[in-house]
């Protein structure tokens, strides 16, 4: 993805904090498997239920 404006990047919603997060270059190869917006949310995933 080259020269794409931030508002045109794909977005997902984090199941823990319910906030939207955008595609990042470091997630390019594994975007389909990214679920949480941050390491903190991944660690706190049990607290959501």
Task: Outline the structure in words.
This protein has 49 residues and is of the alpha+beta class. It has one domain. The chain contains 1 helix and 2 strands; from the N terminus they run ββα. It has one helix at 39-43, and strands at residues 11-13, 20-22. It has a two-stranded antiparallel ribbon with strand order 1-2. The protein is elongated and about 35 Å long. It starts with 10 loop residues before the first strand and ends in a 6-residue tail after the last helix. The mean pLDDT is 87. It comes from Zunongwangia profunda (strain DSM 18752 / CCTCC AB 206139 / SM-A87) (Wangia profunda). This is DUF2256 domain-containing protein. InterPro entries: UCP037205.
Percent helix: 10-25%
Q: Based on DSSP secondary structure assignment, what is the total number of beta strands?
A: 2
N-to-C span = 36 Å
Shape: elongated
pLDDT under 50 segments (min length 5)? none
Describe the biggest sheet? 2 strands, antiparallel
> Could you tell me the radius of gyration in angstroms?
12 Å
**Oligomer description:** single chain
Strand order of the largest sheet: 1-2
**What value does the average pLDDT take?**
87
Q: Topology as H/E string?
A: EEH
Helix/strand structural class: alpha+beta
Task: Describe the protein's topology.
Blueprint: E1 11-13, E2 20-22, H1 39-43
Antiparallel strand pairs: 1-2
Main features:
alpha+beta; 10% helix
């Amino acid at each position: 993805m080259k020269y794409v404006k931030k508002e045109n990047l794909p977005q997902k919603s984090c199941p823990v904090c319910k906030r939207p997060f955008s595609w990042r270059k470091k997630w390019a190869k594994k975007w389909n498997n990214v679920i949480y917006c941050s390491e903190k949310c991944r660690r706190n995933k049990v607290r959501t239920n």
